[in-house]
Amino acid sequence: MPAKTYVQTTINGEHVDFLCEPRQSLLECLRDVIGLTGSKEGCNDGNCGACTVVLDGRIVTSCLVLGVEVEGREITTIEGVACGSTLHPVQTAFLENAALQCGICTPGFIVASKVLLEQNPDPTEHEIRFWLANNLCRCTGYDKIVRAVQDAAVKMREAEV
Amino acid sequence: MKWIDYARTCSVQEAVDLLKEGNARPLAGGTDILVNLRVRRFDIDTLVDVKDIPELNEITCDPSEGLTLGAAVPCYSIYTNEAVCAAYPGLIDSASLIGGTQIQGRASIGGNLCNAAPSADAVPALIALGAVANVAGPGGTRQVAVEDFCTAPGQTVLEEGELLVSLHMPPPAKGSGAQYMRFIPRNEMDIAVAGAGVSVEIDNGTFKSARIALASVAPTPLFVREAGDSLVGQPVNEESVRAASAIARDAAKPITDMRGTKEYRMHLCEVLTRRGLNIAIERAKENK
Fold first, then answer.
1. Could you tell me what percentage of chain B is helix, strand and coil, using 3-state DSSP and rounding each to the nearest 5?
2. Is A4 on the interface with B (CB under 8 A)?
3. pLDDT for A12-29, tens place per residue?
4. Architecture of domain A5-79
5. Which CATH number, 3.30.465.10, 3.40.50.300, 3.40.50.10540, 3.90.226.10, labels domain B56-169?
6. Which of A16, A153, B148, B278 is most buried (CB neighbours < 10 A)?
7. Which CATH class is domain B176-286?
8. CA-to-CA distance for B60 and B86, rounded, in angstroms?
9. CATH architecture of the domain formed by A89-160
10. Is B38 an 8 Å CB contact of chain A?
11. Mutation test of the interface with chain A: which of B79, B102, B115, B191, choosing the one with the most A Cβ atoms within 10 A?
12. What predicted TM-score, i.e. pTM, was given to this entire model?
């Protein structure tokens, strides 16, 4: 069996190193090698967005990134969204607006929404829906999710003032 | 997925040397190839990561030289580039509708071309814009017109060891405009039932040149040269636009599948070409 590859990277602000096979996706490395199981596997082909993470400032589906590709890069996963025991405003808004049922899609939606609001503090409903088009939810029907993102946007703008 | 080796390369030469060893493919955004490898649509021995090669990351938009777009530049970097947005709105139409936000952060226009899907959303726009592919290989470099690049579903003119380095588009002429439009049954994240990329150059109310290409209606993205040529010398009006759209419809060779019937797709080609031409004409009027 060929050798595994040694990868050094930064995850949620901390230096992390791990060994992986070149064929393993970043999602597999996060969940099965590093033990960060917050990112979920839905479709494993880039359609559902449940495995969304931030890679060097851009959201990507971690099932379509290889673990070996993240050498020297910076990753934020759902585990890095809250600050200690203080939830991020997007997380609070998802809870308060009941924007989840089964919860499998929720980490992906929260990571994607957080990056949207960092780039665009006052998105229209249209902009929210298009930004989140790569995240699928089979329970809520999206309205509550969109309302949660709008609510988080208001709270984050108020906190800025 | 079977075991693969992974090699990160920093120069075109290094990538070509690895690719010519055989059974290797370049890795840019990976949004097609990783899916294909996972479902074992084909197997390879080595993935050659080309994202660190400077030439494949280039975006140079020059008013006199045109646009050089590195083959690995992700869609996100294209539609957030103000100069490209201003000069090539037809390309931006494509770059901003391939996949969703996460896919656009990784997927490249070069990869869309090399994946050679009949439904590739970027390719009709590239053809309409007269794009040329810069290819490097063991025997040196060569240029291929994008309309000649795809040869069959999933197949291209690239030979073993060859790498798509960049795409070059000429500078937009004064009085020119382009557009890409597809039909899908939902708002986002779907594969084109049919698509049309068009460009026009207008001088004093008359078409000086025009190019029209179609998606999802043939084994490869389809350049309909005669549809564009029919407009040359014609006045810019509804009649000439309708005639060119009918030629595009008649050139389409679609199949009936789960996304649409042959008849429906041919109808779509006419409608999309007509609407696309009308938008391109408006863009040409603004581009003085």
1. 35, 30, 35
2. no
3. 999 999 999 999 999 999
4. Roll (3.10)
5. 3.30.465.10
6. A153
7. alpha beta
8. 13
9. Orthogonal Bundle (1.10)
10. yes
11. B102
12. 0.96
